Amino acid sequence: MLKSLLKTTLSVLLLFVSAATFAAENQDKKATQPEKTSSYQPLIERYILDELKAVRQDQQTLRAEMEEKVAHARLDASDRAIRYTSDTLNNMFIIITTAASILVLMGWRSMRDVRSKLNEVVETKINELTSEYEDRLHELEGKLRKRSQEIIDAQEDISRSNEVHSIWMRAGLESNLHQKIKLYDEIMAIKPEDIEALIYKADAAFELGDYEWAFSLSNQAIEQDADYGLAYWQRACANAANGATQEAINDIKIAITKAPKLVDELEREAAFEDLHKLEEFEALKPKA
């Protein structure tokens, strides 16, 4: 159809060209012979108009055929979709029927069997869930018990810390050395590992003039913590008071090694007054 339309269009174009050529020749003849006229011009015009009309009719026919083909294509697509849906539903029904048949063959031949099996499955699942939640509850209970114990221990630690702090405040305000020693004993009764209270007790014993007791308390502190420099310092004071000069200098060296800031206290420590004449002691002082 399209090929015939192209041929018709080419024919019309050729006719237009021929008509234009013929008209040009007639105009030339009219220019030379003005008295003569052509009798073929109305026929040519009529022929051209008929051809144009035929072309338009062919175009309308082609458009109608194209619309008809598109409509048929859409109808075919709809038919295929409906057929696919129908086939799918049929397959589903077949599968369901087959599954039901298999269940019947396997022994579920009545609603009673189905109900019994369902009850068994539900009971088993409930037992599993119950056991799982019981385990979770036991675990949660254990965590809560542990957390409660931690909270209680923390509260006890806070209470002990507050009580110890209160006793330290009282000891700081107390001027009687014997009362101070009693307060330090109270602190160690609450916190036996409080080495600082032990050192302060040794210092109070030293101030009372009981150098052997101060020496013994210093040894106890060193046994608890061998890296505590102030314990060696306190023992050096006791050794210096007892006349053990070399032992005192050795303890001072260890104390300065463990706690370098103690070197600034060498000049101010009254217990080391007799050691200032020794060169070994003077060598320990910071150089200006």
From TrEMBL:
Signal peptide from the UniProt entry: 1-23
Parts forming coiled coils: 130-157
Bilayer-spanning residue ranges: 89-108
Keyword entries, A-Z: Coiled coil, Membrane, Signal, Transmembrane, Transmembrane helix
InterPro entries: TPR-like_helical_dom_sf
SUPFAM superfamilies: TPR-like
Protein name (Swiss-Prot/TrEMBL): Tetratricopeptide repeat protein
